[in-house]
């Protein structure tokens, strides 16, 4: 009887071992794939983000990296919502909370009005030993970096050249004269 049970147990044991080996191989492959994806994802260049091709909802529309209470800047930028900022906003705001050792505790990025950008800079809280740095910038997805000190926690405004119908004709006036009037002489 014992011999008969042993004969039945070996195939079950072999099948169990095969299933365990198969599960181990699948787990190793999945870990490899996940680590490869993370390695490629860490190489995303957020500075080379091109403006969107979809039509703008209103003149001078822009987008910002947006996240709320993200753990780090990379994940905030990587998973930021891709949507146009509301018309009542003009800037991109970044609020960075970190410990006295420089470890990020939360990052919030969003579209902001001029009123929300009045209080930029860094403020250290004596109670919680945390620092909050706020910065604002103007331009399409300009809030890539995190403010970490008074040097980069600023209100960065680019003075974009906006063209009106009167200023458009001025740069082209010399070209117009050169192309059309000069051949007549």
UniProtKB/TrEMBL annotation:
GO terms for molecular function: acetylcholine receptor regulator activity. It is a lipid-anchor; GPI-anchor. The keyword Lipoprotein applies. Its main location: membrane. Keywords: Cell membrane, Disulfide bond, Glycoprotein, GPI-anchor, Lipoprotein, Membrane, Signal, Transmembrane, Transmembrane helix. It is found in: Cell membrane. It comes from the Eukaryota. InterPro entries: LYPD6-like, Snake_toxin-like_sf. The keyword Protein transport does not apply. It comes from Cavia porcellus. PANTHER family: LY6/PLAUR DOMAIN-CONTAINING PROTEIN 6 (PTHR31171), LY6_PLAUR DOMAIN-CONTAINING PROTEIN 6B (PTHR31171:SF3). The chain crosses the membrane at residues 12-33. GO terms for cellular component: plasma membrane; side of membrane. This is LY6/PLAUR domain containing 6B.
């Amino acid at each position: 009887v014992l011999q008969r049970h042993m004969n039945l147990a070996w195939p079950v044991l072999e099948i169990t071992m095969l299933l365990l080996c198969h599960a181990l191989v699948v787990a190793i492959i999945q870990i490899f794939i996940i680590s490869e994806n993370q390695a490629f994802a860490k190489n995303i260049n957020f500075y080379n983000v091109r403006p969107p091709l979809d039509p703008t909802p209103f003149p001078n529309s822009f987008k910002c990296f947006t996240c709320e209470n993200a753990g780090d800047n990379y994940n905030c930028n990587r998973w930021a919502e891709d949507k146009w900022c509301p018309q009542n906003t003009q800037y991109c705001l970044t609020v960075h909370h970190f410990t006295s050792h420089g470890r990020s505790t939360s990052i919030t990025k969003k579209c902001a009005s001029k009123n929300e950008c009045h209080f930029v800079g860094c403020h250290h809280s004596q109670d919680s030993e945390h620092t909050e740095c706020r910065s604002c910038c103007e331009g399409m997805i300009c809030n890539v970096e995190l403010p970490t000190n008074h040097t980069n926690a600023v209100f960065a405004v680019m003075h974009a050249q906006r063209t009106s119908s009167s200023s458009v004709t001025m740069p082209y006036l010399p070209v117009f004269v050169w192309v059309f009037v000069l051949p007549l002489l």
